[in-house]
Amino acid sequence: MIPVIQSLIDATSAGAVYALAALGIGLVFGVLRLANFANGEIITGAGYALVLLWPLSWPLALAASVVVAVGLSLLMDLAVFRWMRSQSPAALLIASFGVSILLQRAFEGIFGVNVRTGAVAPALTKSVNIGGLRLSLLAVVAIVLAAVLLLGVHLFLTRSRMGLQVQAAAADFREARILGIRSGAVIAVTLGMSGLLAAAVAFVLTAQSGSVNPTFGVQVTVFGLIGAVIGGLNRIGGALIGGFAVGFSLSLFTTWLPAGLGDFRVAFVYLLVIIVLVIVPNGIFAGRTAKERA
Amino acid sequence: MSSHDDARVLTVSGLSVAYGGVPAVSDLNLHVDAGELVGVIGPNGAGKSSTLLGIVNAVRSGSTEVSLQGVDLRRMPPERVARSGLALVTEGHHIFGRLSVHDNLRLGTTARRDRKGLKHDLRWVHELFPVLEEFADRPAGLLSGGQQQQLAIGRALLASPTLLALDEPSLGLSPTAVDTVFAAIESVCARGTAVLLVEQRAQQTVATAARTYVLSEGRITMTLSPTDADDSALLMKAYLGS
């Protein structure tokens, strides 16, 4: 029973991280119709800031990771995506691949091809004992961090004036502008939020691994994107749940698949994704919104 | 001339809109004076929506003049046009279905130049459309078509616009809902807001508006006055061309 609970908590923690990644991707897609593959390099950038600066000063490392992530998010829009506003989502996706590869090469040039190591929040690697249950402190922190951020994003979107405008822009961008909603401000706020979420993902991942390399953020972004797609890119809540489901199942497959099959866990996740998309091509929660958008 | 200009709210000269080289609106001129209700009628595909979207720069357009109370709108993005005092209710009442009725109305206040008078305006919108107060907390997507149209108009009014432009507000509505909408448009005008009403419902529009332009294949072919409303032969000709 106890191993089961432990693996469920680990899976919840993994799910929480992927949910954060998917939420950042879903928010940006909602407003910009941009499925941003280069979100991975935003995470990588924040990861370098954390790993390289944490030994010097942890507050500096945290602040720098947020600045780097938000900065990269805004910069790639300024340099590339804002010139493509009228292009199709497919063209934007391809452009984001370009940005992603370019930034990976830049990281290689600046920090080298090899893994850079540094203990990020080493205190969190301890585990706590609760009633015979050995819980990794980091797993608990990841879950709490994700919950706080998700609640924060939710409250911002539903309670604040600006959040309401972001929601309106995500539902119908042209109509929002016709109502006087400033597109530039809405886009900047959305990119800022996705940057902040990327920094949080980078924190949990670097605290887990204590290392970062030029392709550090790729995997979590691929699964975040997949999660967002199966949840329904059109719905922010859908992206979130999809991301959680992917992370959760990935973690469970790791623990529960027989030894020989463990290496194929990713294949099993993709199989699940294919099954979901064959049944509901627009994603599980897309339903009404797809029509609303048309 | 100058006293005439003071009364002018909207001036549109030489407006053209084309989609991929295919002209939708060509060299269109129209104007709306203070406190006036001006109609634009025409069959499907005449370029009515393109005219409105071109004026607010939601689609690419060319023109020699588009101005609101002397302010040049031509280079402004749509959000600045809205903030300059032109509120557009787009065709098919694009309300935000997952947001509550109240939140939709809140979004309408975005383009306001000041918060002064907001309470008063909200009370007035609730008087015009009591259903918006009754269903304030309901998701807007659950409203009927007529109620959604009322919400779209109420939302536009909360911007406290100088000019309210409406794109086929009666489209797809029940006869009672159409009457509600037309009555509301007349009270908006009576309150001093200029109105540009684009409609397919020719007879009712011509009878209500001070002046009605007839649009055909992207050009204004005729201007009608309220006395023409009962001349069905003329309306027929306006629609089908001579």
Describe the structure.
The complex is a heterodimer of chains A (294) and B (242). Chain A has 294 residues and is mostly helical. Chain A has helices at residues 2-32, 39-53, 58-79, 89-111, 137-159, 161-171, 173-178, 183-209, 218-231, 236-256, 259-262, 265-279, 287-293; strands at residues 116-117, 127-130, 133-136, 211-212. Chain A has one domain (2-217). Chain A has 13 helices and four strands. Chain A is globular, with a radius of gyration of 19 Å. Chain A starts with a helix and ends with a helix. Mean pLDDT of chain A is 90; it is low at 288-294. Chain B has one domain: Rossmann fold (3-Layer(aba) Sandwich). In chain B, the strands form two sheets. Chain B has a six-stranded mixed β-sheet, sandwiched between helices. Chain B is globular and about 45 Å long. At the A-B interface, helix 6, helix 7 and helix 13 of A face helix 3 and helix 4 of B.
| Assembly status | heterodimer
Largest pleated sheet of chain A: 2 strands, antiparallel
| Overall number of structural domains of chain B | 1
Q: Overall pLDDT of chain A, averaged?
A: 90
String of helices and strands of chain B: HEEEHEEEHEHHHHEHEHEEH
Estimated helix fraction of chain B: 25-40%
- Using the 3D structure, state the CATH architecture of chain B: 3-Layer(aba) Sandwich
The SS-based structural class of chain B is alpha/beta
Short characterization:
The complex is a heterodimer of chains A (294) and B (242). By secondary structure, chain A is mainly α.
What features would you highlight for this structure?
heterodimer, A: 294 residues, mainly alpha, two-stranded antiparallel ribbon, 4% strand, globular, disordered C terminus, B: 242 residues, alpha/beta, Rossmann fold, 6-stranded mixed β-sheet, 5-stranded antiparallel β-sheet, 11 strands, 37% helix, 26% strand
Describe how the helices and strands are arranged.
The complex is a heterodimer of chains A (294) and B (242).
Chain A: H1 2-32, H2 39-53, H3 58-79, H4 89-111, E1 116-117, E2 127-130, E3 133-136, H5 137-159, H6 161-171, H7 173-178, H8 183-209, E4 211-212, H9 218-231, H10 236-256, H11 259-262, H12 265-279, H13 287-293
Chain B: H1 2-7, E1 8-19, E2 22-33, E3 37-41, H2 48-55, E4 61-62, E5 65-68, E6 71-72, H3 78-83, E7 86-89, H4 101-108, H5 118-128, H6 130-134, H7 145-157, E8 163-167, H8 175-190, E9 194-199, H9 202-208, E10 211-216, E11 219-224, H10 232-240
Parallel strand pairs in B: 3-9, 3-10, 7-8, 8-9
Antiparallel strand pairs in B: 1-2, 1-4, 1-5, 5-6, 10-11
